[in-house]
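QA checklist item 7 of 12: single-chain prediction sanity check.
[x] sequence parsed
[x] length recorded as 169
[x] structure emitted
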Amino acid sequence: MENFHKSYFYINKKLIFETLKNLFGEMKQFYNSKSLLRLSFLFVLLFSVITVINSCKKDDDEEFQDHVVQFEVKTTAGGNIISVVTQVGTAQNTIYNTPQSPVTSPWTSGEFFVNSSQAQLNLDANASMPDDNSELTITLYIDGEVARTVKKKGKGVLVASIDYSFLEP
């Protein structure tokens, strides 16, 4: 019984090591083969195509739009516009009332297109007003509608300013 018991649990180490050696040899041959290189190239190509397709999808964000913009400066009777400063994005324009180029009330910039990517619109004006009931009014129109209006009332030099951003509601 003792001999049977020993032979029953006998492990042929040579057979196990020979099997493992063959298995590792086949794995090494697989990793060195061109089929693995082709398979890896296929996975890289597939990953790249999926990445490009996902990046080309339309974003949920609203895209920038073109708007028709117009600035306007008005004074009541007897008011004299001294200067008007307009700014679209980073482009600033200053207009002075001089004898060679008088600025009369009402002054308008005329309509022009602005892309909402320009973010910031500014209008500043100052005027010399004759009495306490005089009024300086500046208005920003976007797409034909009044976006902002500022009114200053009084005597002397009045200053009014509008700052508008397409990015802020």
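[x] summary fact logged: The chain has two domains: 2-55, 66-165.
[ ] second reviewer sign-off
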